[in-house]
Protein backbone atom coordinates (compact mmCIF):
# COMPACT_ATOMS: atom_id res chain seq x y z
CA UNK A 1 0.00 0.00 0.00
CA UNK A 2 1.24 3.51 -0.77
CA UNK A 3 2.71 5.34 2.24
CA UNK A 4 1.03 8.64 1.26
CA UNK A 5 -2.39 7.00 1.42
CA UNK A 6 -1.70 5.93 5.04
CA UNK A 7 -0.77 9.45 6.09
CA UNK A 8 -3.65 10.90 8.11
CA UNK A 9 -4.94 14.33 7.14
CA UNK A 10 -4.20 15.71 10.62
CA UNK A 11 -0.46 15.14 10.14
CA UNK A 12 -0.47 17.74 7.37
CA UNK A 13 -2.50 20.17 9.50
CA UNK A 14 -0.30 19.70 12.57
CA UNK A 15 2.86 19.84 10.46
CA UNK A 16 1.88 23.03 8.62
CA UNK A 17 0.55 24.83 11.70
CA UNK A 18 3.65 23.84 13.67
CA UNK A 19 5.90 25.07 10.86
CA UNK A 20 4.10 28.43 10.85
CA UNK A 21 4.29 28.66 14.66
CA UNK A 22 7.93 27.64 14.82
CA UNK A 23 8.71 29.78 11.80
CA UNK A 24 7.62 32.78 13.83
CA UNK A 25 9.94 31.59 16.59
CA UNK A 26 12.78 31.54 14.06
CA UNK A 27 11.83 35.05 12.89
CA UNK A 28 11.80 36.26 16.50
CA UNK A 29 15.20 34.66 17.09
CA UNK A 30 16.71 36.31 14.01
CA UNK A 31 15.20 39.73 14.77
CA UNK A 32 16.40 39.48 18.37
CA UNK A 33 19.90 38.26 17.54
CA UNK A 34 20.37 40.95 14.87
CA UNK A 35 19.13 43.64 17.26
CA UNK A 36 16.27 44.85 15.05
CA UNK A 37 15.22 47.87 17.10
CA UNK A 38 11.77 48.31 15.53
CA UNK A 39 10.86 44.68 16.09
CA UNK A 40 12.24 44.64 19.63
CA UNK A 41 10.36 47.84 20.50
CA UNK A 42 7.08 46.12 19.69
CA UNK A 43 7.99 42.94 21.55
CA UNK A 44 9.30 44.69 24.66
CA UNK A 45 6.51 47.26 25.03
CA UNK A 46 4.20 45.04 27.15
CA UNK A 47 7.05 44.26 29.56
CA UNK A 48 8.24 47.81 30.15
CA UNK A 49 11.77 46.97 28.97
CA UNK A 50 13.57 49.46 26.74
CA UNK A 51 15.08 48.30 23.46
CA UNK A 52 18.56 49.22 24.70
CA UNK A 53 18.10 47.15 27.85
CA UNK A 54 16.79 44.19 25.83
CA UNK A 55 19.76 44.31 23.46
CA UNK A 56 22.21 44.62 26.35
CA UNK A 57 20.52 41.66 28.10
CA UNK A 58 20.77 39.45 25.02
CA UNK A 59 24.37 40.52 24.35
CA UNK A 60 25.29 39.56 27.92
CA UNK A 61 23.66 36.12 27.81
CA UNK A 62 26.11 33.34 28.64
CA UNK A 63 27.08 30.93 25.88
CA UNK A 64 25.04 28.08 27.36
CA UNK A 65 21.87 30.21 27.33
CA UNK A 66 22.49 31.22 23.71
CA UNK A 67 22.99 27.58 22.77
CA UNK A 68 19.79 26.62 24.58
CA UNK A 69 17.82 29.37 22.82
CA UNK A 70 19.14 28.31 19.41
CA UNK A 71 18.50 24.63 20.14
CA UNK A 72 14.95 25.42 21.21
CA UNK A 73 14.18 27.47 18.12
CA UNK A 74 15.96 25.54 15.40
CA UNK A 75 15.11 22.14 16.88
CA UNK A 76 11.43 23.08 16.65
CA UNK A 77 11.75 24.27 13.04
CA UNK A 78 13.62 21.08 12.12
CA UNK A 79 11.00 18.99 13.93
CA UNK A 80 8.19 20.63 11.97
CA UNK A 81 9.96 20.07 8.65
CA UNK A 82 10.80 16.47 9.55
CA UNK A 83 7.20 15.87 10.60
CA UNK A 84 6.02 17.07 7.18
CA UNK A 85 8.62 14.79 5.59
CA UNK A 86 7.17 11.94 7.69
CA UNK A 87 10.52 11.27 9.33
CA UNK A 88 10.76 9.64 12.74
CA UNK A 89 13.70 11.97 13.41
CA UNK A 90 11.13 14.69 14.09
CA UNK A 91 10.91 13.19 17.58
CA UNK A 92 14.60 13.81 18.22
CA UNK A 93 14.33 17.37 16.90
CA UNK A 94 11.30 18.18 19.10
CA UNK A 95 13.03 16.58 22.12
CA UNK A 96 16.10 18.76 21.49
CA UNK A 97 13.82 21.77 21.18
CA UNK A 98 12.16 21.00 24.51
CA UNK A 99 15.56 20.60 26.17
CA UNK A 100 16.67 23.96 24.76
CA UNK A 101 13.42 25.55 25.87
CA UNK A 102 13.83 24.27 29.44
CA UNK A 103 17.39 25.53 29.77
CA UNK A 104 16.47 28.83 28.13
CA UNK A 105 13.65 29.33 30.62
CA UNK A 106 15.99 28.53 33.49
CA UNK A 107 18.21 31.39 32.35
CA UNK A 108 15.28 33.78 31.89
CA UNK A 109 13.81 32.99 35.29
CA UNK A 110 17.09 33.16 37.18
CA UNK A 111 18.30 36.25 35.30
CA UNK A 112 15.26 38.39 34.52
CA UNK A 113 15.58 41.36 32.21
CA UNK A 114 16.36 44.58 34.02
CA UNK A 115 13.60 47.21 33.84
CA UNK A 116 10.87 44.55 33.46
CA UNK A 117 7.78 46.02 35.09
CA UNK A 118 5.34 43.28 34.10
CA UNK A 119 6.58 39.71 33.63
CA UNK A 120 3.06 38.40 32.93
CA UNK A 121 3.39 38.31 29.13
CA UNK A 122 6.73 36.43 29.09
CA UNK A 123 5.49 33.95 31.70
CA UNK A 124 2.28 33.22 29.79
CA UNK A 125 4.16 32.97 26.51
CA UNK A 126 6.72 30.56 28.01
CA UNK A 127 3.85 28.40 29.27
CA UNK A 128 2.15 28.39 25.84
CA UNK A 129 5.40 27.54 24.04
CA UNK A 130 6.04 24.68 26.49
CA UNK A 131 2.53 23.23 26.06
CA UNK A 132 2.81 23.36 22.26
CA UNK A 133 6.27 21.80 22.28
CA UNK A 134 5.15 18.95 24.55
CA UNK A 135 2.08 18.41 22.34
CA UNK A 136 4.27 18.19 19.23
CA UNK A 137 6.60 15.76 20.97
CA UNK A 138 3.72 13.51 22.07
CA UNK A 139 1.96 13.78 18.71
CA UNK A 140 5.15 12.80 16.90
CA UNK A 141 5.66 9.85 19.23
CA UNK A 142 2.08 8.76 18.53
CA UNK A 143 2.64 8.98 14.77
CA UNK A 144 5.78 6.87 15.10
CA UNK A 145 3.79 4.30 17.08
CA UNK A 146 1.14 4.26 14.35
CA UNK A 147 3.89 3.67 11.74
CA UNK A 148 3.04 6.94 9.98
CA UNK A 149 6.57 8.25 10.39
CA UNK A 150 9.49 6.23 9.12
Give your account of this protein's structure:
The chain is an all-alpha fold. The protein has one domain (8-145). It is built from seven helices and no strands. The longest helix has 26 residues, at 120-145. The relative contact order is 0.15.
Strand fraction? under 5%
Shape: elongated
Count of DSSP H/I helices: 7
What is the first-to-last residue Cα distance? 15 Å
Structural class: mainly alpha
**Number of folding domains?**
1
Number of strands: 0
Q: What share of residues is helical?
A: over 70%
Average pLDDT confidence is 94
Uncertain runs with pLDDT below 50, 5 residues or more?
none
Helix/strand order, N-terminal first: HHHHHHH
Q: Assembly state here?
A: single chain
Main beta-sheet annotation: none
Rounded to an integer in angstroms, the radius of gyration calculated over CA atoms is 17 Å
Question: What are the defining features of this structure?
Answer:
mainly alpha
Can you summarize this structure?
The protein has 150 residues and is mainly alpha-helical. The protein has one domain (8-145).
What's the layout of helices and strands?
Elements: H1 3-6, H2 9-33, H3 37-44, H4 51-59, H5 63-84, H6 90-110, H7 120-145
Keywords: Membrane, Transmembrane, Transmembrane helix
Transmembrane segments: 12-30, 63-84, 91-110, 122-140
Organism: Qipengyuania psychrotolerans
